[in-house]
């Protein structure tokens, strides 16, 4: 017997055995989908293709059929599973509470086990997820080599030479490489940055794995905003990459090991709150409890850790942020990073922060919670779909005539800046914390100006 779903082509035989696969995913998780289709138009890949198999509902059918071994995990399966942006817009739209992120991430883990040489070549996966991202020292070495490449003129020569065309996806990735920060972010030797004035709270800070090198300014601004708000900031040196990139790419075991390392790195400090300033990392950190739920040694510790994680904008609103901002004569709009709006349900807090800055004109953009197409490394490995997804975003940003599009995730900043520049739109992205820091500095400058007068 066969079941035909939605569009022709997705034909799935009934299950033929009960063997359980797909770590972390239960039959109950999949059964929560009642096939209503209310998620379809929230899905960027469905909007672009109109295909059931590129929709949340279609992918859930595929995963269910593969889990029950009614269809093979082959290249076609991988294509559908990896064309998903893991943006979680379907979770927000779903009235049935389907945890789509859990489904797609478990499916990717299983898909990579079954087809390790498939969507991402095996060597590249081994290099990136097992040999570079888990090791801070290697990441630093890589960043230093990249700095030489960017600053020595070699990059310019390579780009002009046309050599990049020979390397296909690699070459494409190089053209998307952002400029490294002029000064890398480094945690102090003592691992603690004192509060300015009275210490009211002690918080941990997750620096991110590439943030210190590509977004040093964002990390410095985040720490400065925290210390201005009476926080002593603990930055453990033994922390690692959060594992988000690995989870999204199906490198589940590497992500689990990184999660264990991070729990062990932050635990000794007895912190009440652990802060993230990157939406993708924040969601991954809040979901360590899912990632490690079957680990007898770490399951409970993961729950305790995840409960402490907050996005920086969520935390600042909770503690009633110091609003002694100076005036800023700028027009801004806001992009809801998917893993903040859909992954963490943090929407109002960044807007509240922006609207508390005097002089700042805030204008909503149309479909601010539609994905920009960044999605970790999606804009590199699925460049065509990423371009299609970002095109309406560029138009919506342009329509606001904003100076800045504010966002709480570094990947979105890169994706939007590349697309805006390519379209000749002058708006540029800025992280929420950099804007807040500028507003505090504006108050200090005004204070100096007043005292000089
Ligand atoms: S996570 Fe995003 S791209 Fe994937 S199915 Fe859901 S809405 Fe579509
Ligand atoms: S995922 Fe949710 S919204 Fe989408 S078809 Fe299933 S129950 Fe309906």
- Uncertain regions: pLDDT < 50 for 5+ in a row? 1-20
Largest sheet: 5 strands, mixed
Q: Quote the distance from N terminus to C terminus.
A: 85 Å
Strand content: 5-15%
CATH topology (fold) name of the largest domain? Glutathione S-transferase Yfyf (Class Pi), Chain A, domain 2
Q: Count the strands?
A: 11
Overview of this structure, please?
The chain has 453 residues and is an alpha/beta fold. The chain folds into 4 domains: 2-114, Fumarate Reductase Iron-sulfur Protein, Chain B, domain 2 (Orthogonal Bundle); 122-175, no CATH class; 192-318, Glutathione S-transferase Yfyf (Class Pi), Chain A, domain 2 (Up-down Bundle); 331-452, Rossmann fold, CATH 3.40.50. It has helices at residues 27-31, 44-49, 56-67, 75-83, 89-93, 100-114, 122-132, 136-151, 154-161, 168-175, 211-214, 216-228, 244-249, 252-266, 279-286, 288-291, 299-308, 312-318, 338-341, 348-355, 378-381, 383-400, 410-422, 432-452, and strands spanning 2-4, 11-13, 192-193, 201-206, 231-234, 273-276, 309-311, 331-334, 361-362, 404-407, 428-431. β1 and β2 (11-13) form a beta hairpin. α22 crosses α23. The longest helix has 21 residues, at 432-452. It is globular. The model is unreliable at 1-20 (pLDDT under 50). It binds iron/sulfur cluster (2 copies).
């Amino acid at each position: 017997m066969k079941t035909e779903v939605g569009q022709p082509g997705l034909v799935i035989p009934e299950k033929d055995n009960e063997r359980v696969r797909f770590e972390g995913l239960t039959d109950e998780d999949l059964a929560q989908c009642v096939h209503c289709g209310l998620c379809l138009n929230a899905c960027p890949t469905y909007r672009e293709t109109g295909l059931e198999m590129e929709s949340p509902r279609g992918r859930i059918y595929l995963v269910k059929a593969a889990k029950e071994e009614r269809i093979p995990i082959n290249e076609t399966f991988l294509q559908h599973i990896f064309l998903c942006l893991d943006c979680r817009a379907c979770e927000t739209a779903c009235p049935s509470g389907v945890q789509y992120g859990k489904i797609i991430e478990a499916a990717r883990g299983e898909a990579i086990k079954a087809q390790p040489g498939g969507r991402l070549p095996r060597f590249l996966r081994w290099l990136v997820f097992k040999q570079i991202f888990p090791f801070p020292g290697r990441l630093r070495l890589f960043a230093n080599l990249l700095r030489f490449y960017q600053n020595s003129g070699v990059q310019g020569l390579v780009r002009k030479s046309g050599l990049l065309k020979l390397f296909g996806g690699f070459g494409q990735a190089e053209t998307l490489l952002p400029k490294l920060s002029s000064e890398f972010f480094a945690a102090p030797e003592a691992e603690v940055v004192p509060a300015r004035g009275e210490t009211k709270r002690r918080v941990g800070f997750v620096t991110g794995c590439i943030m210190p090198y590509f977004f040093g300014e964002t990390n410095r601004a985040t720490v400065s905003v925290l210390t201005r708000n009476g926080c002593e900031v603990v930055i453990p040196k033994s922390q690692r990459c959060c594992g988000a990139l690995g989870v999204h790419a199906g490198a589940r075991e590497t992500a689990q090991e990184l999660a264990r390392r991070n729990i062990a790195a932050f635990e000794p400090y007895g912190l009440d709150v652990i802060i993230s300033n990157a939406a993708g990392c924040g969601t991954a950190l809040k979901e360590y409890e899912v990632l490690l739920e079957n680990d007898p040694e770490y399951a409970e510790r993961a729950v305790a850790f995840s409960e402490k994680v907050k996005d920086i904008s969520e935390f600042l609103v909770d503690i009633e942020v110091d609003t002694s901002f100076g005036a800023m004569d700028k027009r801004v709009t806001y992009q809801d990073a998917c893993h903040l709006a859909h992954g963490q349900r943090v929407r109002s807090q960044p807007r509240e922060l922006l609207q508390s800055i005097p002089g700042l004109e805030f204008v909503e953009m149309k479909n601010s919670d539609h994905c920009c197409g960044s999605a970790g490394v999606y804009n590199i490995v699925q460049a065509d779909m990423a371009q299609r997804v970002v095109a309406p975003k560029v138009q919506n940003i342009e329509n606001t005539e904003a100076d800045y599009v504010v966002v709480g995730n570094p990947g979105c900043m890169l994706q939007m800046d590349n697309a805006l520049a390519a379209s000749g739109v002058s708006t540029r992205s800025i992280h929420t914390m950099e804007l807040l820091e500028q507003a505090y500095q504006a108050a200090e400058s005004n204070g100096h100006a007043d005292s000089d007068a």
